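In full, the data.
>
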Amino acid sequence: MATYDLVVIGTGPGGYVCAVRASQLGMKVAVVEKNATLGGTCLNVGCMPSKALLHASEMFEEAGHSFAKMGVSVSSPKLDLPAMMNFKQQGIDGNVKGVEFLMKKNKVDVLKGTGKILGTGKVEVSADGKSQTIETKNIVIATGSDIARLKGIEIDEKRIVSSTGALSLDKVPGKLLIVGAGVIGLELGSVWKRLGAEVVVVEFLDRILPGMDGEIAKQFQRILEKQGFAFKLGAKVTAVDTSGKTLKATIEPAAGGAAETLEADVVLVCIGRVPYTDALGLKEAGVALDPRGRVQIDPHFATSVKGVYAIGDVVAGPMLAHKAEDEGVAVAEIIAGQAGHVNYDVIPGVVYTTPEVSSVGKTEEELKQAGVAYTVGKFPFTANGRSKVNQTTDGFVKILADAKTDRVLGVHIIGREAGEMIHEACVLMEFGGSAEDLARTCHAHPTRSEAVKEAALAVGKRAIHM
């Protein structure tokens, strides 16, 4: 019987990073993976393939609409969807092979099969009708999340699709109906809109991007509408008739009222994700779950069963790959007797549309609710030199600082490369920095990041270029 210091179930960003860090700390480590490839949802059917399609579709859009005004004459671009999907697959394959390499490099054993926890110190791995029991001092559950489903609407991944199916459509839908105006819906909607689909987004709430800063969400909605998105907010999809050549979706007001019917070629259901705990044997092993089906953990990621820990989408908190990675590192360090820690106040979020939206820390709504006095500094990209010459001036930077201490509490950006720009705010906030610290830090000219410095200056009402 094989014995380990640590067995990690799941090889998504949380799981494989945890395994690498544990190996660095001198542990004998194995990972258990039920799928044919490593990397979890993120690398195979999530973050990575969607970014490949977002990039490729953006290039298609640029070639068709922006090249001419820059003095670049090209014939009208033609879409070769199979070649674009191949481009996406090459990216997936490269990343998956990268994780395989990391496992070999760090001497982590890869056990293929479904992992089941038999209690403290024992994991059963089953594949092809055979099973083996692995002994281990510690177990980390890193099984991630699965798509949330709408009652009464069957996902077939052909016409009614989840994010997985929406990444592999074999033709551009004439009409795409998206259920849910969260990050995934808006990103995938952007891909197919650029490639020629008519996109309608139905959202139960009265706003897009729940949880993001309200002012940012409103401006972003206006930008998307300018791009051709149509939104039906405060509405819900109650049924989809699949009997005809086109799908017929029944839409009702969230508050109640008369229903309407919308036709679509494809319906994309992306109303969120749920923890994936199937076949793990948690109940039998005595691992406690919370009312939302997430694994309950203490501040050190420990579950109710000794020696069993959990991280990532399967526990509370934002379902983000980088949050899972940080937790993976922290739990490996805790198991090794070190002081592993995750600062949940400084976890950035990014929407990879064009323009991008990024955010870290508190929103205005959260600060108001908590009764925290704050100061706002804003700076638009219309006043940023680099954005002006590139004619990419949509959006702005918004910084929220404590009114008494000037400590930065939240930063929110809409704009090109917002996902890259957010990180100087993350570093500043990690060290408890002030808007003044950021405002007095020299930024290279001309860069879009100067807008971040200007927003910090605007906190003290002394922006230079506005």
